[in-house]
Amino acid sequence: QKEVEQDPGPLSVPEGAIVSLNCTYSNSAFQYFMWYRQYSRKGPELLMYTYSSGNKEDGRFTAQVDKSSKYISLFIRDSQPSDSATYLCAMSAAGGTSYGKLTFGQGTILTVHP
Amino acid sequence: DAGVTQSPTHLIKTRGQQVTLRCSPKSGHDTVSWYQQALGQGPQFIFQYYEEEERQRGNFPDRFSGHQFPNYSSELNVNALLLGDSALYLCASSFLDTQGETQYFGPGTRLLVL
After folding, report:
1. Which of the ends of chain B has fewer CB neighbours closer than 10 A, N or C?
2. How far is the alpha carbon of B38 from chain A, nearest alpha carbon, in Å?
3. Contact: B43, A8; criterion CB under 8 Å
């Protein structure tokens, strides 16, 4: 079993839709949670960074972390064609020998069509 | 402010050869991490360098080695290349502050082993 599971999709939605992306994890040591966006043939771009449980909002993006369920989500409101990309969740532990190592999900391919 | 830069952008090698990839971190960052991303997969952590020392290492064989220079730039070396080493190699830079350690990625080097 992988430490981080992410539905690879693909996910196709119409412009303006609300998109929900999710990851589950098994390692209870994870304390830092990130969402990256990766366009084709480019490096990952950091979208959201959250420490521990709770919600964080930035413009059209909202990240949620539920550590009790080992479940994180990214919501995209009013989705645009420019949001079409692969979305990667990533996590890291706080302290210890795993500190600094990001563990990624497989990535979800999102297409927003006009 | 220049972001993380990597060179070369693309590389073609044959089995058994050796390759060196280079990374310059964002200004102000002192830590460099390397990841391997196979097609359709999330990045896999190779290792992390801090203060010119390997601080963390993922599940990669000794054929993968690295170096960090006093100016914080870094190299990734892969010896005895295998077909399975074909991937996008990503460098990420970071520094540790009160918010944790946020990693910013470069555009990657795409390696093809024939």
Report:
1. N
2. 10
3. no
Contact B43 A46 (CB under 8 A): no
Q: What percent of chain A has pLDDT over 70?
A: 95
Q: Which two tokens stand for residue B96?
A: 């540790």
Half-sphere exposure of A8 (CA within 13 A, CB side): 5
Token pair listed for B60: 């990669």
Task: Give the angle A42-A48-A52 at the CA atoms, nearest 5°.
Answer: 135
> Looking at beta carbons, which residues of chain B come within 8 Å of A49?
99-100, 102
| Amino acid letter for position B8 | P
Window 29-48 of A, Cβ < 8 Å to B: 32, 34, 36, 41-46
| Residue predicted with more confidence, A2 or A114 | A114
Q: Is A74 helix (H, G, I), strand (E, B) or coil?
A: strand
A98: confidence class by pLDDT, cuts 50, 70, 90: low
Q: For A46-95, what is each residue's pLDDT tens digit?
A: 999 988 888 999 999 999 999 999 999 999 999 999 999 999 999 998 66
pLDDT digits (tens, 9 = 90+) for B84-94: 999 999 999 98
From the list B9, B4, B14, B3, the residue with the least C-alpha distance to B34 is B4
